[in-house]
Amino acid sequence: MSSFYPVIPSVALPGVAFGLLTLAEGALPARHGDQVIVYRPVLAGTLRAYDNGDLALSGRAADHVSLGAAEAELDRRLGPDALDRLIAEAFAQFQAMTPPGSDNAAPDDAVRGQETALALTRGVVVRALVLGSWMAGTGWDDVLAALFAPVADVPFTRCPATPGGPAFSRARRGVPGVVVAAVCEAVLAVLRAELLDPHDPQALTAGAFRVAGFDGTLLRLPDTAANRERFGAGTDPAPFPHVRLLIDVDAGTKTPLGYAHGPSSGAKDTGEQTLLEQVATATPAICHPGLLHVGDRNVPGAERLARLTGAGMNLAVRLRAGITVDVDTWLPDGSALVDLGTDDVLHGWRDVEWDVFADGRPHR
Fold first, then answer.
1. Contacts from 107-111 at CB under 8 Å and sequence distance 24+?
2. What is the pLDDT of residues 271-295, one digit of tens each?
């Protein structure tokens, strides 16, 4: 039976390309091929003992990177190695739908014919893409540094260095967007379950509700024929194709709970109102009785509000001026129970009036 030896990473020595493994006090002598446990971070693997007495962990850092607490929660809910299984399943489904030899077929690995292929595996590339979506405005060098940081001081026998942004930019071309979307949705499902608790200390609350907010934005896309075909051509001074993104975000942690996107150029334009319904339909977890969704005055009319609340969404919205409001009952705090709309009337909504001051002027 194999013995386990506690091993900890030491500070890298001058002139040495990577750190050293040091036996913990009281450990038995370690031999080449022994099974060891590395502390800070906790890793388990096979020891490589060099003739000069140096120790390293067999393998590569790419096999030990993770998304931290989010991936641990995914494993807890879906079983060990859940993210790797999701990535493999997403690739298998994509390959099954893609004819052999097609230009859209994904290569066997993210990078071919390069040393970086050993570090930029599919698992690393997909994890970096997911992490990059959480680190808005950050370059790929910083994303990769954050992903590899927990294992950066552990000496491995292969590919000990953190890969760089340029190599990653080439590698990510081998990962289809549908694969990343499927993995992101699985990770978001876990985060949603965690973020629906109104008693979470990170939550921003309003009464008994945990608060979320939804809004839309436009993203300019490269002016390619494929993008023009799918998203249409814009009409601004630089008529690039645009995609409209509608995202519902937890107010306390800024974590996305759900999103939808569509064309936002010319005849193909998709409005925020349509995307909002898509989010509610595609992401039933956000229709939670303890979650309050806050929206701006571009929220649609009474019919769409009825469909959203019928799906289970709790809404606090700034109504547009054109919606008819009939007061039924004034409440002691100054708010009122009202009826909204004219044709399909919504009964019993609570209406609050307030003034927002901007540039020294009130806006109701």
1. 107/174, 109/174, 110/171, 110/172, 110/174, 110/175, 111/167, 111/170, 111/171, 111/174
2. 888 888 888 888 888 888 888 999 8
